[in-house]
């Protein structure tokens, strides 16, 4: 038999549920406000105590109302936050299971694709999906099996909210770890974000790709073009993250293709003579090929300094000629500066390159270059620039003499 105190608690619970069932939208909004204010951060035992061991009855009503009204944004933010109190409750795995049983994941993912709903509501959806994913591998698999990666990647690429995009990054990173069955799907979903129009989404996708690289192992060849394309971004933070990903990829099989692409970017194709690089993304604005040229010159210097083997491979790919072309680009000072700094590294590191460059530039111009690689090009006239860009530096494939100098 139940005690009088227990019976009173049950009567109180039933009265609360009846109040909810009979309430109109305004009254339900008020109930949700009180619930959020009173129960945020509570554990499963505390919620059960609050609801006389019947908290699941209220959660069922919340999820049912969500399923019925999410298309119309009826108190959607408060509703999602209330469900979040259950899903985030310590020791509350049962609440997550109950939420999933009514198709909660599919509803949340569908909300992300509805253009008329608010970004802040979608951000709450992502937070709930994070809670589901954090519950374990099988829950991550459920999200991925529900086409969650595609939905999240699309939302990341199109969202206007930096806060929402950052929440998506956290979730995609979570889905990429401890989820071996779908880690490659997450990786490719992030690659699909790279050509989008949002610099913030590009930056976050690149950061996550770097983190997931060791998890995934080898990178697919489809990554080469979009990563090199981002070097033409006018946003330096995107260029920086693209270079960080290039560094992470130097130990992978795509390295030769990436290096070949970088060297090709140093010599933008003439009009009506377009090659595979620069990509069509950068050809939308003529100046972007110069932005890309400068970023490629800078990235080449970074990669060469990281690895003598990479530097030697670049030399065999005629990177020196490409850097000379970039130094001679009087239309873009950044190309000249970055190419000159990278060129000086090759000259200082490889005696054979030094000999070849000195012969190509002549003693006076070579000395100016060595004295001040950051500024020497500012004193270059048009004839010198044209000669520099058209000079072919012939470095023999003599690896015995290609050894870098010590220290």
From TrEMBL:
Record organism: Nycticryphes semicollaris
Protein name: ARMD1 protein
Pfam family, one: DUF5578
InterPro entries xref list: ARM-like (IPR011989), ARM-type_fold (IPR016024), DUF5578 (IPR041090)
Gene3D superfamilies in UniProt: Leucine-rich Repeat Variant
């Amino acid at each position: 038999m139940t005690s009088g105190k227990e019976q009173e608690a049950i009567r109180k619970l039933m009265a609360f549920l009846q109040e909810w069932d009979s309430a109109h939208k305004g009254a339900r909004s008020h109930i949700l406000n009180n619930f959020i204010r009173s129960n945020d951060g509570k554990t499963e035992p505390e919620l059960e105590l609050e609801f006389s061991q019947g908290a699941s009855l209220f959660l069922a009503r919340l999820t049912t109302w969500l399923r019925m009204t999410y298309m119309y944004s009826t108190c959607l933010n408060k509703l999602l936050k209330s469900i979040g109190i259950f899903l985030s409750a310590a020791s509350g795995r049962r609440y997550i299971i109950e939420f999933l049983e009514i198709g909660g994941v599919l509803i949340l993912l569908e909300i992300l694709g509805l253009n008329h709903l608010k970004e802040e509501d979608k951000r709450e959806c992502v937070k709930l999906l994070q809670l589901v994913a954090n519950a374990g591998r099988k829950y991550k698999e459920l999200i991925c099996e529900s086409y969650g990666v595609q939905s999240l990647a699309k939302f990341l690429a199109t969202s206007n909210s930096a806060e929402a995009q950052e929440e998506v990054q956290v979730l995609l990173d979570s889905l990429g770890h401890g989820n071996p069955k779908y880690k490659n799907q997450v990786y490719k979903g992030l690659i699909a974000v790279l050509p989008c129009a949002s610099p913030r989404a590009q930056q976050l996708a690149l950061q996550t790709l770097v983190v997931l690289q060791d998890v995934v192992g080898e990178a697919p060849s489809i990554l080469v073009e979009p990563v090199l394309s981002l070097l033409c971004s006018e946003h330096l933070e995107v260029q920086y993250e693209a270079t960080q990903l290039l560094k992470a990829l130097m130990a992978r099989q795509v390295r030769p293709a990436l290096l070949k692409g970088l060297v090709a970017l140093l010599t933008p194709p003439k009009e009506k003579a377009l090659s595979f690089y620069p990509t069509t993304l950068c050809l939308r604005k003529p100046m972007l090929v110069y932005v890309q040229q400068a970023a490629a010159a800078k990235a080449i210097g970074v990669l060469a300094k990281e690895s003598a083997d990479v530097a030697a491979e670049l030399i065999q790919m005629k990177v020196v000629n490409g850097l000379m072309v970039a130094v001679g680009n009087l239309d873009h000072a950044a190309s000249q500066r970055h190419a000159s700094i990278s060129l000086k590294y090759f000259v200082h590191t490889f005696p054979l390159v030094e000999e070849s460059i000195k012969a190509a530039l002549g003693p006076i111009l070579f000395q100016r270059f060595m004295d001040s690689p950051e500024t020497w090009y500012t004193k270059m006239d048009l004839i010198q620039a044209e000669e520099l860009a058209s000079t072919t530096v012939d470095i023999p494939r003599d690896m015995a003499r290609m050894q870098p100098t010590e220290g």
